[in-house]
Structures are given as C-alpha cells and as structure tokens.
Amino acid sequence: xxxxxxxxxxxxxxxxxxxxxxxxxxxxxxxxxxxxxxxxxxxxxxxxxxxxxxxxxxxxxxxxxxxxxxxxxxxxxxxxxxxxxxxxxxxxxxxxxxxxxxxxxxxxxxxxxxxxxxxxxxxxxxxxxxxxxxxxxxxxxxxxxxxxxxxxxxxxxxxxxxxxxxxxxxxxxxxxxxxxxxxxxxxxxxxxxxxxxxxxxxxxxxxxxxxxxxxxxxxxxxxxxxxxxxxxxxxxxxxxxxxxxxxxxxxxxxxxxxxxxxxxxxxxxxxxxxxxxxxxxxxxxxxxxxxxxxxxxxxxxxxxxxxxxxxxxxxxxxxxxxxxxxxxxxxxxxxxxxxxxxxxxxxxxxxxxxxxxxxxxxxxxxxxxxxxxxxxxxxxxxxxxxxxxxxxxxxxxxxxxxxxxxxxxxxxxxxxxxxxxxxxxxxxxxxxxxxxxxxxxxxxxxxxxxxxxxxxxxx
Length: 459
Ligand SMILES: [Mg+2]
Description:
Strand content: 15-25%
Strand order of the largest sheet: 5-6-1-7-10
Bound molecules: magnesium ion
Largest sheet: 5 strands, mixed
CATH architecture of the largest domain: 2-Layer Sandwich
Number of strands: 14
Radius of gyration: 26 Å
Shape: globular
Distance between the termini: 30 Å
CATH class of the largest domain: Alpha Beta
Low-confidence stretches: 1-19, 374-402, 425-459
C-alpha cells in the first residue's frame, strides 16, 4: 500500500516522513445481513435456508442466507419465486428496527477506526483509513482486525475489500464474499486487499457491468461493441468508446476500466434521529387510547436508542389528522436521557398540547439531539450507584437512574425471551397486549392491517 512519491528537486529522500502514501479505502459489507441477524437472534435457524422480505403475494426478497442461495434464491427476487425454488425456506417478514439497531452497533465500531465513514444502507460502508494506516499499519491488517472485532462483538460475518479507491475496495469486498458452487457454500477469504500494482490484474477479468456507472443500457451498447470484460473496455480505443456512450460517460468509463476513481469517502451526516410511528386502521379520537399508543411508540424508540448506544435530548411528537394535515411538537431537555420514563413523560406532555378531537390518523415520536451512551452512563453514575438494587418489585421507582436500570433489564429480558415477554404496564391486557412489533410491512404488507412501518436508523 506504500507508494513513495519522487523526491522534489534538492530534497533528499527520507524514510517515513518524506513518503506519500496512496489513499487506502475499505469497503465493509455484512454478509446476508438481515438474514444473518435473524439467525443470530434465533440459533435454531442456523444452517437453514432463511429468506427475509415481503411475505405477502407481492413481496420481494430483501435478503437470504447462503443456504437459500444454494437453491437459486436471490435478493430482489419475487418471494413467490423464492418459495417455489426453495419450499423448505424459513420465510420471515423482517424486523427493520432490529436491523437498524445492529447497524448502529456496527457503525459505532466503524467510527472507532476512522471518522471518515460513509454508510451505504444499513450494512455497507466505505472507510477512508489512509490516516489510520499511517499510525497503525496497512489496510489489510486493519481490515482483518475490524472483521474480527465485528465477528466477536456482533456475532456477524462481513466481507472487507481494500483498495486505493471506492471502486476497487467495493469490487474487492465482492471477491471476499462466500460463494455458492453447486450445492455447496464455500467460505470466502473475508478480506481481499488489492495493492495498487495488482489493480489491473484484478480488474481486467471482471465483467464490465461490475463497474459503477455501467447500467443495463450502457451495458447493452458496450456489448454491441464486443465489450464484455473490464479488459475489453480498457483496450477499446477511447474514440470508439466515446462515440458509443457519449464523451462524458466514455471518459469516465475509460478511467474506471484503468482503476481510476477519485471519488472521496464522504463522512456521514450521522443519524439524526430514531423514531417510531404508527398509522391507525381507523382515526383515533380518545386521548386515553392515543396515550396508550404513544407509550408503545416511546417504548420501541427508546429501545432503539439504547441499543444504538445513544441518549437523546430532543423529543418530537408528530400527529397527522384524518385530513392529512399534521402538527409536530418538540421539547429539548437540559440533559440527554435514554429511558421511556423520562422521554415518555415529555412525549405525553407534548401530545397533551395537541387538540386531537378531529381524529388522528398517524402518531409518531422521534428522539434526536444525540449524546453518546457514555454521557448517559456518566449521568447515571453521577446520580448515584447501585440503581439496580434499589428497584424493588411492586414499588415503582421514580429516580431517573432507577428507570435506566429497569429499561436495561427489560432490554435484556426481551433479547432473551422475545418482545412479548415484557410490556409496559399501561399496555398489559389492552388491545391485544404485546409490545409493538416493529418493521413489518417493510417489503410489502404482511397482513397486519393497521400498523405502519417503523422508521429510524441507529447510526
Ligand atoms: Mg451486505
């Protein structure tokens, strides 16, 4: 990864200080992400073909395990087709909020490698580690350490590509993936690092469609010129290429074929909020019912918040009426909080400020103004130790730190026994009980009439 720049006139070449290194970009891509999270949460699924996506008649596959890929199941395939190819598949509707939570945990770890993290969706990111490499070694060892950390901390596999551009890093991560051959799943190398001098050899055999910017239309035009691989493209006279696809695209493609890609890694606008909202089957008028729904939304939103390792200062309640007009009410607290008790009290007061008599179609709550979990933990400690011991059954605790302990315990129980194990007291026995099931209907309705989709991203 080290590339020495020629010494300037009159300057003696020095080891280290005078060197200029090539950019080092990592592309981290979780393997079969949604499906792997399902297997993680339910070990009985281990080794089975698991397909996540819309379970209704018009649903599509969002993700599937490699065991399902053996049967020819692929993402974006109609679910009906997936079921036909693999009747024994375990088909799950997907839990978007859970995936967002895991994504938050992933991004916390990526952010510890470098602040230059550009997330793509929930389970992919580019990292510019040029700076980190200067301090701690080469891209490959960084990638291997990161991959091991993700496996240890999250229990999930990812593939990492290393290159001096986004293009090469992305293609390298594809090469690092497990593959399916016949009825077998072959583990991939996990990390593929393409050194600058290996770029041409790595890129040339790839299909030209692997290059970004080659969509189906351009692909067809190139095919007419006999261009199938990156090598074909690189060897095409530039004039011929520009006549076929236009001068701008032609120049871009010729560059990409030579591995030239200057696109920078653009650090994320961090997640700005986590939230939950629900669209009701019928407009709701009764404030008691609305407050009960709110409790459920707050409960789910604060859980996302805690799992992502955040505390929030701002609470926003959104109310959309039957005629689609909408109001929002926000309040910012002096100190960040992460418990349903503190944030839910604010949310309830905000809801009280809204006249709901004309019927509420949608209710939402979002939490923003994040501080790291460390800040929340510090606050908890500064409020006193031994919070957990002070929580006794039958005596509702009131101090915020006690509520933090309760919230953490509830998260624990739910992780072990499922969402229905613990529900807020206000919900127990009311309209079917259960904690809000989150994220259904993400890939087409699964048959639950009223529930809208959960929204929110961990980080
Ligand atoms: Mg992925």
